[in-house]
Write a structure and sequence with these properties.
Chain lengths: 777, 160
């Protein structure tokens, strides 16, 4: 008789060690710049020295030695001079006779045997530009928007309307209006941008590099390169951080390298140094957001009116969708029957902004969570009790008319965070600009509460239909195993580990038999870009279902081949049938590989059929699911220097099923630290010449080990049951709310509300001493 | 440019060095010796990704001209660290604590942690923060890295 089987060991929910950790702690993981290639040319981008003008001439210095150097301009583009992106307006290289629209806009590319020679040659390209007056910053754009709305240049408008705003204000007992600002934020992945384009004999190209979304270059460069998708193959090298920064930009970089590669017939590598990476790659969009809110004496919100303006930079690229995500979060988290939100993307003469963790949501939540505290103060209600009163929960209707499902831990996040941080008691100890007994510094505690729409906006997932395969294969040791084939990229967030856990559980196999090769568009089905907090939720479901598909195939093969048609189950790496001795997986898999040549499970994601989204009206189910979180910041401020010390941060999150609590809490701590930088440190201004004033790590300051608070990270699990194993979005949520929590704590500590990020000691000093301005430093 | 002729001890092995005098130590290690575990991120001494140990002191190798280092200089890189007991303890603790994400800062972090623990086998939390303050990490929020250093310290054999 067979022994009773113990239940399969579950990896989901366990802090399994990272599958890619060993090479990373030993320094043996090979990132792009660690790989040796022969015969490469190195590319250097020739950039506009002015933020706006007419490009009249491009002249290589006739006295310079150009031998061995390939130089390309827009005239070398085989097809149409455009990078597709979302509106097909941005040229790959500035066109002769056309308008330069931002400082650093690429005009040409030089490729040479060494990076030094390429850079030297690039400096010998003379540009003749008739300078035009630029509009450089969001501040200037907003000034136009306020004074002469007709002259305001918006690249995309979108509104959300719910109920009747006029009636909402008529019902209000009080109205509060305020504006909030935030500037650029740089992703600052530690590994700079880089890739290599290898021209192939058949005219196609192979691209290798630090690329977050390998399918983007495949589909965004067909017009300029005159190559169909199947002639652009992209392979990911290990990614040293991305955070959205390697989402849209590597497409442009691929274009820059492809032109000299196609012209010279030699592989061309472009890799940036830190300064070039900070100055000339996309950043988080600066925001200006104005809230006007009506509310009753009891606190009921009767009207929310919101203008949400992003600085898109010189071209739209993907800013429309960033703005959509922004406005969808501008009033998501609170109950209100009458809402009007107007989103716009301002055109300025600056580098186009792009993807950065959060993708518009942190900008929206920054405004909303600051403003909600201000409303509570006006009402004389403690900020936590006010949020408990008006926050959104299951059954509530979002501004686009989506009914929030019961898979929603909003209330649980709020309550647990308040309890763990002892918020109510500590709120009473806040200094409000006056040291209390026993305090050497001003003390403040601040709260933010928010949701984050997980996966693509609207019907994106329904249209996209993420695909993935799980294949039976022979591993490096010659024994059978499994390959996960999805295009999700490992950037540090841990997808290789959590997908290994998901596949191992679905197949009931040892995780050591499962491999997750780096994405390669030649081999990997398109499961979509690694963005939008969609990976574990959507693609994790694809892996789970594809693995179950393969499991069924293995079981039915074993049934036929080894068990005479009996019902067979793959369980704990064995094929078991009642009343028979079990067979090891390896044995059956070997037979299957030998007799069938292989096998693979496949799945294609679909949303529930009842999901409704009308993009035109911007009405319906704007996201498949929502994650929720409450953040609480405790801070101290030195009354003399105004220096801010964040002592403790409590974060409670509902991300659905937690697949790996260790990688998940690591994501949260890292995201909160980026949000801390956004709140307090990370600042980029724009000079009159259109150049950012922070080009180095000396001037663009990110948090160090000295700056971080004590983190208390907790999860409450409300799984997304439609898509087992039931994860919701995680990646972006920790970036969303800490900045307003800190601003609210600053208000509690000083009695002053700061409405511009980052909140520097100078800003606090200026708020405390409005007459004096900033302190002399 | 004059050519440098030196003999260093790199990861315990005697290695002849031939390089232009102004060449950065980082380039000698990565390009000439193939020790690419050491990373470059800023090239300006601000991020710590290129940290190696020179004569028992952690340094940022992107700021050191190779010509500054005399014959007999002892250099320890991430490739040599794992041959030490402390190094292996640190690597294991990083893995167990989940202190690794994208990994790009990690060789520098491991090297700085090693330098710290060699000098101070029982560091306090503030001492660990101080010891790692020159190493930027954009992924982890440092918390698990600090935990890992503590764990490694706790496992060090007690000295008499
Ligand atoms: S690369 Fe040396 S400190 Fe950044
Ligand atoms: S793990 Fe990515 S920078 Fe530290």
């Amino acid at each position: 008789m067979t022994k009773p089987q113990s239940p399969p060991r579950r990896l989901i929910g366990q802090g399994m060690m990272r599958v890619d950790g060993d090479g990373k702690v030993r320094g043996t993981t090979r990132y792009l710049n660690d790989l040796a290639y022969r015969g490469l040319l190195h590319g250097a981008v020739v950039r506009s020295p002015v933020p706006r003008g007419l490009l009249k001439g491009i002249t290589p210095d006739p006295d310079y030695d150009w031998s061995g150097i390939t130089f390309v301009t827009a005239a070398d583009i085989p097809g149409i001079n455009v990078v597709h992106m979302h509106d097909r307006t941005m040229p790959l290289l500035a066109e002769l006779g056309g308008e330069i629209r931002y400082r650093g806009e690429p005009v040409g590319v030089v490729a040479a045997r060494t990076p030094e020679r390429a850079a030297a040659a690039a400096a010998h390209i003379r540009l003749d530009i008739e300078v035009l007056p630029p509009l450089l910053t969001l501040q200037e754009a907003v000034a136009v928007f306020k004074a002469r709305p007709g002259a305001f240049d918006s690249m995309k408008d979108q509104s959300i309307v719910k109920g009747d705003l006029a009636r909402g204000f008529a019902e209000a007992d009080d109205v509060l209006e305020a504006e909030y600002w935030a500037g650029h934020q740089e992703q600052l992945y530690l590994e700079n941008q880089g890739l290599i384009v290898f021209p192939q004999k058949d005219g196609s190209i192979l691209v290798e590099g630090s690329i977050q979304c390998p399918y983007f270059p495949v589909h965004e460069l067909n017009d300029p390169l005159q190559l169909p998708p199947e002639k652009i193959r992209v392979r990911q090298t290990p990614i040293g951080g991305a955070f959205g920064g390697k989402e849209d930009y590597p497409t442009m970089l691929t274009g820059y390298a492809a032109l000299p590669a196609l012209k010279s017939g030699r592989p061309v590598k472009i890799t940036y140094e830190r300064n070039e990476d900070i100055l000339f790659t996309p950043k988080r969009h600066p925001v200006w957001v104005r809230y006007k809110t009506g509310f009753k004496k009891d606190g009921t919100l009767t009207a929310i009116e919101c203008d949400f303006l992003l600085d898109g930079g010189a071209y739209l690229t993907l800013s429309d969708v960033v703005m959509f995500r922004g406005i969808l979060h501008c009033a998501l988290a609170y109950r209100c029957d009458n809402v009007t939100i107007r989103g716009r993307v301002a055109r300025t003469n600056s580098m186009p902004c792009g993807a950065f963790r959060g993708f518009g949501a942190p900008q929206a939540i920054w405004g909303l969570e600051s403003h909600l505290d201000a409303i509570a103060a006006r009402l004389g209600k403690p900020p936590h009790l006010y949020r408990l009163q008006v926050h959104a929960r299951p059954g509530d209707v979002t501004p686009t008319g989506q009914v929030l499902s019961g898979e929603n831990g909003s209330t649980a996040c709020l309550k647990l965070a308040l309890q763990r941080a002892d918020f109510a008691r500590k709120l009473k100890r806040c200094s409000r600009g006056r040291l209390r007994r026993g305090q050497a510094k001003w003390y403040g505690i601040g709260l933010a509460f928010f949701g984050h729409g997980a996966a693509f906006t609207g019907d994106g997932e329904a249209k996209f239909k993420a695909k993935g395969r799980v294949e039976l294969t022979r591993l490096a040791d010659g024994r059978p195993g499994i390959d996960i084939r999805v295009s999700s990229t490992e950037m540090g967030q841990g997808v290789h580990t959590v997908f290994t856990q998901i596949a191992a559980d679905a197949l009931s196999l040892d995780p050591g038999r499962i491999r997750f090769p780096l994405a390669d568009t030649g081999l990997t089905p398109n499961s979509g870009p690694t963005v939008a907090s969609r990976t574990t939720m959507v693609v994790g479901n694809v892996v789970h279902r594809a693995a179950l598909d393969l499991k069924r195939q293995i079981e039915s093969f074993a049934s036929r081949r080894h068990f005479k048609g009996a019902a067979v189950e793959l369980r704990r790496s064995q094929l078991v049938a009642p009343g028979r001795p079990p067979l090891p997986f390896a044995r059956v898999a070997r037979d299957m590989l030998a007799e069938l040549g292989g096998a693979s499970g496949f799945f294609q994601f679909e949303l529930p059929p009842e999901t409704k989204w009308d993009q035109q009206a911007f009405v319906g189910d704007s996201y498949p699911g929502y994650s929720w979180s409450a953040n609480i910041a405790e801070i101290e401020i030195d009354p003399l220097t105004c220096e801010i010390d964040v002592k403790r941060v409590t974060a409670v999150l509902d991300i659905g099923r937690v697949i790996n609590p260790v990688t998940a809490s690591g994501q949260v701590e890292g995201g909160l630290t980026q949000a801390l930088g956004y709140a307090l440190l990370e600042k980029i201004g724009t000079g009159r010449n259109g150049l950012y004033d922070a080009a180095r790590l000396q001037t663009y300051i990110i948090p160090t080990a000295r700056d971080i608070p004590e983190f208390d990270v907790q999860f409450v699990e409300y799984p997304y049951t439609f898509a087992p194993p039931g994860a919701k979005g995680l990646g972006e949520l920790p970036m969303d709310g800490l900045a307003p929590a800190i601003a609210n704590a600053v208000e509690a500590a000083t009695g002053r509300r700061i409405r511009t990020l980052p909140i520097t000691p100078e800003a606090i000093f200026a708020a405390l001493h409005p007459a004096q301005g900033a302190p002399a430093s | 440019m004059s050519t440098l002729k030196r003999t260093w001890k790199v990861n315990g092995q005697t290695v002849p060095i031939r390089a232009p005098a102004g060449r950065r130590l980082l380039d000698v290690l990565r390009d000439d010796l193939g020790l690419v575990g050491t990373k470059e991120s800023c090239g300006e001494g601000e991020c710590g990704a290129c940290t190696v140990i020179v004569d028992n002191e952690p340094v940022v190798s992107c700021l050191i001209p190779a010509g500054q280092l005399p014959d007999g200089t002892a250099i320890l890189t991430i490739e040599g660290i794992e041959k030490t007991r402390i190094g292996r303890l640190i690597q294991r603790a990083f893995l167990e604590c989940g202190a690794v994400q994208c990994g790009f800062c990690i060789p520098g972090m491991v090297v700085s942690s090693y330098a710290l623990l060699v000098k101070n086998p029982r560091p306090s939390t503030p001492a660990i923060r101080e010891g790692l303050a020159g190493n930027l990490c954009r992924c982890t929020g440092y918390t698990k890295i600090i935990q890992a250093v503590k764990l490694a310290a706790a496992r060090l054999p007690k000295r008499k």
